[in-house]
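Annotated sample (chain length 309).
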Amino acid sequence: MVLLGPTASGKSALALWLASRLGGEIVSADAMQVYRGLDIGTAKPCPAERAAVPHHLLDLYEPDQRCSAGDWARLASAAIAEIRGRGRWPLVVGGTGLYLRALLQGLAPVPPRPPLVRERLERQCARRGPERLHRLLARLDPAGAARLAPTDRQRVLRALEVRFATGQPLAALVARSPFAGDVVPALKLGLRLARPELYARIDARVRMQIERGWVEEVSGLLRRGLPDSAHAMKALGYRTLVRHLRGELGLAQACALIQRDTRRLAKRQITWFKREAEVLWFDALDPMCYDRILQTIGGEPRSASRSDR
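Output written by the structure step:
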């Protein structure tokens, strides 16, 4: 079973409730919760929640490493098999749409990274900056460059690698077979929320994360030597707080920027999930939402109150 929806829609609370009643275990489908040390900013489950219900795919990578969608899908498949092997119910929960689709449909094969090409591009990027590579991509693959920001270093590098390795744009390869076909059959449940309520929740959560010590978390990562160019630091809000710590932004300004960027993320997630097939959607504000979901999956309603959630 998959539980999806935009950030701050209430997926984590519902997942805990369902898992506790169904004898389930939660598999996180959040692209950034796999990294150690990124806890507050990624809304990672707290120790009490992880003690109440087993969670999987958290804290697997150091923040200077990189976990791709394919890596995550393989790990998730293994976790699901282990959970089922124990006679438990796997519940995949998250808002990273590409990762969920990689698990459910598989990713189309793409060429491996040519090491020498990668090294050469990395050196050019270090010397001349990602904007120079973006201009190179614009000459070789104009459509691909138009879809990428000049500062999106990782995707620009990957697009250039594929272009040099195959002589074709990455989009042309993906367009022929973007996903490999059904891999994991799943019941997909979605939580939806009216935009004003969703955005209010997002703003409140960012304020709470700041109060809980998010700035100190980022400061600790930097003290341990993690560069702000590390892939894990692309997690929403982290580089904004790096700018605050460097004196470029006041805390109120940084908080407002993170709130804005999180609202934009939620909008993109809503758009992505609208295209997802066969999702059963539920209103997160419906007082009977939990019971309706439990009935849908064949469980017995417990008429959970708000305090039970």
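Annotation: Confidence is low (pLDDT under 50) at residues 177-181, 301-309.
Annotation: The two ends are 20 Å apart (CA to CA).
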